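Hi team, as promised in this morning's meeting, here are the two structures we talked about. I've kept the exact order from the run log so nobody has to guess. The first one is mostly here for context; it's the second one we should focus on when we meet again. Sequence first, then the predicted structure tokens.
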Amino acid sequence: MTPTPALPAHPTPLGPVGLVLLAVASVQVGGAFAATLLPTLGVLGTTALRLGLAAAVLLAVARPSLAGRTRQDWSAVLLFAAAMTLMNTAFYGSLTRLPLGVAVTIEFTGPLVMSAVLSRTRRDLLAVLAAAAGVLLVSGALRVLLGGTPVDPLGVLLAALAGACWCGYILTSARTGQHFAGLDGVAIAMGVGAVVLLPWGLPALGTALGRPELFATALGVALASSAIPYSLELVALRRLPARVFGVLLSLEPAAAAAAGAVVLGQALRSDQLVGTTLVVLASVVVMTGRRPHPAG
């Protein structure tokens, strides 16, 4: 998301770095618990329920005004909604076939490659090559050459699609941030995504309401994956340079591997852990090498 302008903010016990780290952990724990919903609610049902519940919370908090919006406003937020909805659907689809840490690592290469391409430096190119080697290790492609068994190829493709959509999400998020203040654009986009997935969302909601433990998990996923991290990042970005913010987000693959191991019991192999580490380090290299852009 595009950093918000610096505003006076009350200090928090965690500080801005702590808030971002908490947001990263929250997103990945939310992803881990979302994986537990998929066998019962399905990919589209889980996505619809996550977006719908998160939208209900964010709309209640942000209370965005819909009146007087221009055609450009709606164009920006609808493209944002499309990128967000497809990204979440593809990602949850990958979780039905891949461990959480593997899916996030592959997905994360999307924005990493985009950042490197935009900067076009030799250092970032080398970082991307290191990340590519990391993905080969995580996906198990090298194990095939050695006679081993790879991870699910469709799962890899879905995670890669989620990564491509993440690039679109970043670009459309920045544009939406120019048309909507605070959480308004995110709340509206989530609401639009939930409406699009309504045919799958209503049956999923009916199933969840019939089983309180499912509804509690779905609500927790919506809060942990959307409402909580977006709010924490919005506060943190008021007092944190964008470059530092990017470096902290680079920890997401590692956080996903940890969440998958703790919540789902998905321990990664040693070669997959090495691959995840390569992707994280490559992202840190790219983010620390970024030059700040003037606000426009």
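And here is the second protein, the one for discussion:
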Amino acid sequence: MTVATSDRLPPDWLNISYFGLIHLVALLAVFPQNFSWGAVGVAFLLYWLTAGIGITLGFHRLVTHRSFETPKWVEYILVFCGTLACEGGPLDWVGAHRIHHKHSDTELDPHDSNRGFWWSHIGWMMCEHPVNQEIPRYTKDIADDPFYQFCQKYLVPIQVGLGLLLYFIGGWSYVIWGIFVRLVVVFHVTWLVNSATHKFGYKSHESNDNSTNCWWVALLTFGEGWHNNHHAYQYSARHGLRWWEIDATWMTIKLLEFLGLAKNIKLPPTQTKQTQV
């Protein structure tokens, strides 16, 4: 894959319009008539469901890295929740993230942190990035799955359906907070894993890149902020390896295991783990 420098990549006007529109509509939340505590509660619930369950647990630890196994119906529920985060279809998300890990912080990394905080946070998505052409090579294991294809193709209609449901439940305030405000928060919180955790924090392991462990990103992302640990042991279902590195997603995986819904959970070798469960 040949990657041009960021200043030579043409703008992706579709993505620019997409993210711009969502941010603009979210600003309607500042008007008092669009506020209700019920709408805020729905936004928080959907934030956890889409960012925590969908992106972190589903798209990332389960599908991208296969750090544990679940029954197919559970996998599909998690993938559907990830699709509701509207960060691209599962094929695009998983493919780009696998490419990132293979080429972390090099010219072939789609959000190479050496190009600056803005680039790794959002800039790489505002360009027609060559990474999009490489995604099929990295998603062969899921590309032919009809459910993944459905989520990939109908990403926006699925979100519209959720918006209609929220409108009938609570009116426009539920739509503005439950869709647009929530999406903006989910976007930037998850993007911090690409930007902040390659700039701020500490290193526990030599990972041959700029990845760091950042506690405040970990709190916002249900454990994804322990990013240096993750880059050192990409296959591990657990990212917070010290007792004080709180990893809410790891707790969820243990709950699924207790319920008989998770198995073959992968962890770092015992002699290199810094804590035991």
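Starting points for discussion:
The CA atoms of residues 59 and 267 lie 18 Å apart.
The chain has one domain: 32-258.
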